[in-house]
Amino acid sequence: MSENIEITQKNSEFTGLVESLGSNGEGIIHMNGTVFFAPFTVVGEKVKLRALKVKNRIGYAKAVEILTPADERVRPKCPLFTKCGGCQIQHMRYGAQLKLKTKTVQDALRKIAGIEWEVPLTIKSEFPYEYRNKLQIPVGVDKNGENVIGFYAERSHRIVPVEKCPIHPDWAEKVISVFHEYMEESGVSGYDESTGRGTLRHIIVRDVDGCFIIVAVTAGENLPHADKLCERLVKHFKIFSLWQNINNGAGNGVFGDRFRLLSGKGVYSAYECGIRFDVGPNTFMQVNRNVCRKLYERVVRAAAESKAKTVIDAYSGGGLLTAMLAKTVEKAYGIEVVEEASACADALISANKLDGKMINICGKVEEKLPKILESVNLKDTYLVTDPPRKGIDRETIKAILQSGIPNVAMISCNPATMARDIGLLTGALTEKENGELVKNPAYSEYGAEGYYKIVSVQPFDMFPQTKHVETLVLLSHKINQ
Description:
Structural class: alpha+beta
Radius of gyration: 24 Å
Shape: globular
Strand content: 25-35%
Distance between the termini: 60 Å
Helix content: 10-25%
Largest sheet: 7 strands, mixed
């Protein structure tokens, strides 16, 4: 198709030059007034494309052929790359991935919050592959009714069958093989989302320093022939526990409310940065231990440099970071809503000789944080937040602003919600009565009176080969500068 003809029809083919990359790692191509997004392309490449959807001058296209490959392009390790939705940028050299994630964070701050900030290069992972200590994989049936274990295709719940995955260690391949054999032997069927029939919905595995917590998520009350599953697992794993989680809901949530221990210990211990910590089947643990160590050490150093005597760790998970902080200050509070995780954090206290120095509170951050802020000396208190992908809720943002606590460290796995929350804390964004967020025209490079000012922004590559990035933002209250 000629490039001089307006491209509005589905399946139209054209040739374009990739000018930049979007936040999801997709190539951006301008063609005759339309902006096209094309996954799995690299800046500078001349690409033959097929239009998949065009509306209001925004289009989505598929790369049919890479006519002029960029120097940053590499051959993906995974044969399922572009089919499985797990990785988005495995076709890029690792250095280019780090630059992309830096740009993603910088663009989010500018576009969402209106904040111009020069973000440094993303800190790398020492292991770009085989870094994940957690496997979370859905189980279902294909169009022929056969069991399938794999990962979802991008933007769908169609399961792409997977036998091994290069961002997981070898043990993941063994788990998948064992469950295939068990399901065939025991007549256990995968869950069909369209009909609500079937038994096995997900398999979740955590590697805790060589001890494996394996969870079979079922749609019903029973996991048939669980003894046969254990017999197969014991051939490959020396130390493991097998749990059943019952999830009979119709939503997209992986876990239901009920867990049953079928075999092994319920909780295992691990060591990180001199801290012994416990992990259960529903305890949050960063998936990349190498990068987690770099991130947490940076947070502990920032708190120490502030000369804080007290630290509050909001969204504290299993308490590892809280314990690391407690080692360096007089008292550290951890706030976590998941009961199991909070119980694991409690176990850290005596195991690490932190009695009287570490206090864990189980509950919602928006309810517990304001009370703690009222009870401490704010001038020598440091706040750490590590919220889920949805970010910090508005009530917590308001409580932080009202307190004027001098220093805040925000850890985020979602650049978009991070930029929103930073915008609110710095005054770059304001909220209307109807809840709409708008950019504050009074905000400038000098910040806004009565709000926080950014001290530093540092991305960490917690998730190599994917579009995702972890970011640490340090904030200081202008009144206290």
